[in-house]
Amino acid sequence: MSSPAEDFGARWLEGRLRELLTAFPDLALCVAFSGGPDSSALLAALAQLRHRPRALRAVHVDHGLHPDSAVWGARALEIAGSLGVPCTVRRIRIERRRGESPEAAARAARYGELGAALAEGEVLLTAHHEDDQLETVLLQLLRGAGVAGLAAMPEVMRFARGWLVRPLLTRSRAQLLAWVRGSGLECLEDPSNVDERFDRNFLRQRVLPVIAERWPAAGATVHRSARHAAEAQRLLDELAQADLRTARHGEALAASAVRALPIDRRRNALRFWISARGQPVPPAARLNEIAGSLLAARADAQPCVEWSGGRVERDAGLLTLRRGAPARRGAAADAAPARAEIGWRWRVAPVCTLPDGLGELELRPESQGPLDLGALRASLTVRWRQGGERLAVHAGRPRRALKSLLQEARVPVGERARLPLVFAGDRLVAVADLWLDESVQAGSAARRRARLVWKRPEM
Fold it and tell me: What's the gap between Cα 405 and its chain centre?
């Protein structure tokens, strides 16, 4: 059996860095330093390298989630200082999106801060090890992840203005801990690491000991499986790029070209397209909707699929990816963000100024105008699209869904949420300057006529 010194140490780490970084040691290295045993082992071994990197520093991220977090930050500075490595503490504020776990929110905030701290061309080193990789793969399996998720954490990847490298993925937690104890290093212990309310901690405390008892080499074998998955994902990415070459139309995609692909390649191409644009990949159900019903909709339709952080719109045969928040339950996909309704006493003020830079509505007198001012209430309300609106654009015919009218008129999806809707009580009487309800349309007997004009802002 090998000794801890043979399992891990400065000599081993230097060889590992040479494998992963062709330019080593002519590089600037930055360590994500929690002060715990894993990152302390990494930082201490780096400080002992025979060939020192061009620059070495550490960054401690204070999440502010524990009353003692400031104390831990101060202690991390002391530990790094004792190793002769400069360290800075960066404090962050965790903001959770709806449906996001505390772990995911903290991780996103931490990496965002580390990315902001990284200099041009600098390499960020994290102390993720073999057991972390095993936990990640198991969590991804339990969440129903695909190949990309099962590839788990890569050893080297582009990150912010430099690179992210995980040199310890072939070392176990036990090996690192044994080296730390043998070296007499003092480390921090975060009590939240044993809080079994968090999924990763539950796996670590309850599940992995049972797995290790039955399969002692589980960490190494699952890490090997993750590498196989990463290789498969690279091949899928190459296939997606080939499939997208004929579909690209600037930053958009030609719907007909994507629709011509087999359904599995269609999903793969769409997943790659969305991810490559820096957007979160939609859940499987939403991805299936984009690859299926959105592409299959009739030619004059303008469907939209939305998920947390993004949306795909189809308009004039093109798929467009946009940032967006999730649609409200029961609301139309092209509904507007929440805006307060506006009361409009048009006889006093014929011009109504709209919020959010959406321009103005004006009732402009016109001898042959299509609107009968005599049929119009003195007090109107301006609102925005919420879904379910209807109006009768032709006398004697049934009221029609506004959604259908917008689709037939090929109004771009992105503009629908901007359209000011004019109501008389609960009845929709005008849609910007596009349509009037029959109740206010001017007939031959109308004495006072006008035209509703929407003075649009620059789009």
Answer: 32
Same domain, 112 and 197: yes
How many degrees, rounded to 5, is the angle at CA 295 between CA 292 and CA 296?
Answer: 75
HSE at residue 369, side-chain half, CA atoms within 13 A, is: 20
- Local structure of 375: helix, strand or coil: helix
DSSP state of 142: H
Determine the residue type at 387: G
Range of the domain at 167: 4-223
Helix (H, G, I), strand (E, B) or coil at 68: coil
405/312 same-domain check? no
Both tokens of 181, joined, read 């104890």
Q: How confident is the model at residue 285 (pLDDT cuts 50, 70, 90)?
A: confident
pLDDT, tens only, 298-320: 776 778 888 877 889 888 788 98
Span 13-21, average pLDDT: 94
Q: How far apart are the C-alpha atoms of 171 and 178, rounded to whole Å?
A: 11
Extended beta strands in 303-407, E state: 304-307, 310-315, 318-322, 342-345, 351-353, 360-365, 371-372, 379-383, 390-391, 400-401
Q: Verify that 438 and 295 share a domain, yes or no.
A: no
Greatest Cα pair distance in the chain: 102
Task: Please state the domain count of the chain.
Answer: 3
Nearest-angstrom CA–CA distance, 137 and 269: 24
Contact in structure between 316 and 253 (CB atoms under 8 Å): no
125 and 65 in one domain?
yes
Residue 430 and residue 384 share a domain: yes
CB distance 383 to 421 below 8 Å: yes
113-126 tens-digit pLDDT: 999 999 999 999 99
Same domain, 287 and 212: no
Task: Report if residue 332 sits inside a domain.
Answer: no
Amino acid identity of 46? L
CB 98 within 8 A of CB 211: no
Residue 440, phi then psi, degrees to nearest 5? -120, 5
The helix (run of H) or strand (run of E) holding residue 179 is helix 173-183
Q: How confident is the model at residue 407 (pLDDT cuts 50, 70, 90)?
A: confident
CATH number at residue 267: 1.20.59.20
Asked, for residue 389, whether it belongs to a domain, the answer is yes
Q: Both 25 and 96 in a single domain?
A: yes
